[in-house]
Amino acid sequence: xxxxxxxxFCAMAFASxxxxxILYAADQPVKKEAEKPVEVKQIDDDKAFDKELxxxxxxxxxxxxxxxxxxxQQLKPKIEQLAQEFKGKILFTKVEETVAPGLTQQxxxxxxxxxxxxxxxxxxxxxxxGNRNIDDLRKWLQSELDAYNKSVQPKQQKKNP
Amino acid sequence: MxxxxxxxxxxxxxxxxxxxxxxxxxxxxxAPPPAQNVTVKLVANTTAIEPGxxxxxxxxxxxxxxxxxxxxxxxxxxxxxxxxxxxxxxFKVVGVEWEQPTRFEENGFxxxxxxGKTTIAITVMPPDDLKPDDLKPGDTIDFTAKITWLxxxxxxxxxxxxxxxxxxxxxxxxxxxxxxxxxxxxxGFSGDVKNIGKSTSVLDQDLKPTGSDTEDYGFLTYLFxxxxxxxxxxxxxxxxxxxxxxxLGFVKEAGESRATMVRLGLSYxxxxxxxCVSLALFVIVAKYLGYSVGWGFQFQEPLFVVAMATLxxxxxxxxxxxxxxxxxxxxxxxxxxxxxxVAGAFFTGVVATILSTPCTAPFLGTAIGFAFAQPWWVIxxxxxxxxxxxxxxxxxxxxxxxxxxxxPKPGVWMENFKESMGFILxxxxxWLLYVLGRQVGPDGVAGTVAxxxxxxxxxxxxxxxGGLEATRRRKAVLLAVALAIASATMYFxxxxxxxxxxxxxxxxxxxxxxxxWEPFSKDAVDKxxxxxxxxxxxxxxxxxxxxKVNxxxxxxxxxxTDAFKAKGAVTMQADWTLSNPEITQLLAKFGRAGxxxxxxxxPHRPTQPIVLPTILTNQAVIKALEDxxxx
Lengths: 161, 631
Prior knowledge:
- The structure holds 2 protein chains of 2 kinds.
- By secondary structure, chain A is α/β, with parallel strands linked by helices.
- In chain A, 57% of the residues lie in helices and 17% in strands.
- Chain B is an alpha+beta fold.
- Chain B folds into 3 domains: 30-197, Immunoglobulin-like (Sandwich); 217-422, no CATH class; 517-629, 3-Layer(aba) Sandwich (Glutaredoxin).
- In chain B, α3 packs across α9 and α10 crosses α11 (472-500).
- The longest helix of chain B is centred in the last third of the chain and has 54 residues, at 412-465.
- Chain B is elongated, with a radius of gyration of 37 Å.
């Protein structure tokens, strides 16, 4: 009887250790993926800008930002956060004024930060100005994304049959 | 019909004028900013320019609610506002001044700038040979400025404009008069943003102290000062708690051989020097870690005061005979006892030094103050010299014990004397409790007394029941019980009352008399100086016995209080009983690392404070007050 108890205890201990290790192992790959966040790609000149828009299959977000602009610095982490959330649906890029002053002037950026959304190909879809809170930005992106998807789907349906 | 026609013509003419006016505006590639968040125009502080007389042109900004523009040093982010003024030939721009910017904290970014309205003033020097005669009446001189800025709120908008102002030249018929005074009223800042927010207090400026101990001496002189100061420290009021040790030491040694006495004297010296060097090491480490410490800093820590009080209480019990404390009588020949005697002398040196630190002496303050601002080896050598100085008189007496012959022969009287010394130690405990009371209030004192009681009981228990005949096991149990009682008291009573209490230390004016002592603050000092009053600052601490003596004998004396009143001087007390970095910094500014420090500030020469000697005299105070009130 005593040895049975001992045996049971050992078995349970072993089982729980095994379960733990499996759970841990199962947890690992998820963690590894989370460690690689999507980066907000910096665009440094108009050629690269045009190429990004041309090559993209999804909406392109461009954060026109500047090192001398306080609200831009505050917006930056929010954009980085949203880049994770809209991963694969919207391509996140940024243009730094001190690096590409010509480009920002060409795009007529007067208020900083300005975030613009472009359709693949380069058509400007929408813009947002200032350091808005992340919920508003998320709603804005979602609604633009929905509108864009709606506008694209009918065409695809026509092509399909 | 005719009327209509003329009206039309006038209208057309008007339209023409307007369009012409608009055309005069420089139309550049960029359209004006989308929102009129910033408007700016040039203003001048005079109606007419006089030859060779500087005047000001201001860029007068109006900024929309919630938005701000930046100072020339914008901070972590932002862009400096810029006024680029073009002056005619012969004119010179001699200075640009701003209003003191506001500090903005935006999510971790610190920036400096302006909200509402501000003026950037440019001082212009006209040529000496500016002749109004060359100009026809009504002719003007044109100043143009290109102004750029960045205005931010939730977003930023870079802006720019060109503005101009036309000024006439002064002539007998066109006398200059001052205008726009309000716009220039707050202008006068062009310095480092580090100086914003901090009050531009007199005490923050470059001070040139005059009076006692304010010159700069060489390193060797400071070493000598440290040594002399150490010797004098033996005669300072701190001698009170230490005196019992010293006298007892001599009494102990009265019957010893000369060689033993020298050995004891040297171990005492080793104790003082070792303590001083340890203090120096502590100071060096604290400085390295960025803490501000000063002479006697350990007394700023209430727990240190508790520890000292406990140590002295337990030692007094030893003197009362609760336990056997090494008193060399006849057994001095025994080797073991000799070694114990050496250790005892060393320990005496340590305690004497620690208890001397709340005092400072002439020369000592200067030397220590010098040392604190120096590299580690200077601190170390100065402290070493202080220790040496402290020990010197004692060592000398040991080496040359001629006067000991005056002492009666060893006998019963020594036991009585020893016990009476126990009361002197207890008197020191009373003093420490007073200091503690200032630091942590009545609850802390009660808690500490409880701990003293517990420690005394533990000591008594251990020694009474664990006497010579007790077994080792019994001793161990007793020791455990004694320690348990003491620790329990510390944990449940003393620690919470000393550490947890929300007592705010208030140093009630110690100097009596009919003079009111205000608590020190830089703002108050500035205010009183502005009001034309002489300010006397007493840098003091409850544990600083030199301070207490000065306050009781000089500052509260009739002659000095009369002088304070006669000169209308404001008396202030800067209390250093607890750690206070602001006061430590200020002490350092006067080349000191500790209290007391007495400073007299003159409203006429605020940046030349008069520093009084460490040991105050009525004459010194009165003379300084007279000097300070002289315009």
